[in-house]
Amino acid sequence: MQINMLNKNSGRIPSRKGPISESGVTILEMVVAMLVLTVGLLGLAASIGYAVNVSNKGRNITNTKLLVVSCLEQIETLRNTQQLTFAQIANVGDPGLATGNFAGFPTGFQPVSINPGPDGIFGTADDLINAGPDNTYGTADDFTDYTWAVAGLQRQIVITSLSTNLKRIEVTVRYPDPDGHLRNLVGVSYLNNDASTNFL
Ligand SMILES: [Ca+2]
Question: Residue 92: inside a domain, yes or no?
């Protein structure tokens, strides 16, 4: 039926003119094509991997920066609220550290805890102390809770007295990058001895 419709003018099937090409794709051509395709796909996979790596690095830096800034702001708040005196804002062993119920910020890198411990201050030696089942600090069931430590992170707080009324606060957070290398992110602020009640 279709043939008749196509050839309604001539009334017969037109004969093909010229040689019929029966050449196809050789195996060699297919191999080359597959090689080209493979190289392209490998390049695409590598670029995706690179993008994911860069994204992870950026996220780590952002999270670490937030940790550094929050620690610096905590120390400023401790001064503003006078929870600590200016003399108490110091490292353990600092000759200027005021004696009292606060032991000072320990030197060296410490675990980063998700809780501040009995003293309510992040970055001190008691950050991993859990109050235990009775939920009260200072009782016999207190224990060191290592699950509170953020995996892979460490923090160092260095407080230097520049003058009677000025201290330099340096917070370093050590974190692993996606390649497994440990990196340091450092934040510095300067704290004056503003004992006025402007902040209250
Ligand atoms: Ca603490």
Answer: yes
Phi and psi at residue 110, to the nearest 5°: -120, 160
Q: Which domain holds residue 143?
A: 60-192
Residue 129 lies in a domain: yes
- For ligand 1, the distance from its centroid to the CA atom of residue 30, given in whole angstroms, is 68
Domains contained in the chain, number? 1
- Name residues whose C-beta falls within 8 Å of residue 145's C-beta, 6 or more positions apart in sequence: 128, 129, 130
The answer as to whether 181 is a domain residue is yes
Question: How far, in Å, from the CA of 119 to the mean position of ligand 1?
Answer: 5
SS3 content of the chain, % helix, strand, coil (to 5): 30, 25, 45
| Spatial distance between the Cα atoms of 155 and 153, rounded to a whole number of angstroms | 7
Per-residue pLDDT of the chain (200 residues; tens, 9 = 90+): 444 544 445 445 555 556 666 677 899 999 999 999 999 999 999 999 999 988 988 999 999 999 999 999 999 999 999 899 999 999 998 888 877 778 899 999 999 999 999 999 999 999 999 999 999 999 999 999 999 999 999 999 999 999 999 999 999 999 998 888 999 999 999 999 986 655 55
112 Cα–ligand 1 center, Å: 10
- Ligand 1 centroid–CA 181 distance in Å is 28
Instruction: Give me ligand 1 centre to Cα 109, in Å.
Output: 14
In-domain check, residue 141 = yes
Q: How far is ligand 1, taken at its centre, from the CA of residue 117, in Å?
A: 4
**Ligand 1 centre and the CA of 63: distance in Å?**
21
Q: What is the largest CA-CA distance in the chain?
A: 116
